[in-house]
Sequence to fold (85 residues):
Amino acid sequence: GWCPLSPAGVQTTQLLVEPPWVPVVLRDRVTLTCQGSGTDGAATWYRDGQPWGQKGRKHFIVTETGTYTCYRANTGLSLPVTVTD
Fold:
């Protein structure tokens, strides 16, 4: 029997950027939000590949340039977002 493959079960962590335009520039007062499906567990944040001090927070206003990612236990690591000066 033929069985179609569906990505419907795939859940990922998303790093949402506000305002939503590119490039992401520090002076735009950028807010990053770590969004994942399932349980609303705490986010672990990384800046330039290193654990970063916003642990547990779902969102925050960026005050430093760098490349940010976030991790949630239920959905994994987000794609990176780079904030420039």
User: Anything to note?
Assistant: Residues 32-83 form one domain. The first strand starts at residue 14 and ends at 18. Strands lie at 14-18, 24-25, 31-35, 44-47, 50-51, 59-61, 66-72, 76-77, 81-84. The chain is about 0% helix and 40% strand.
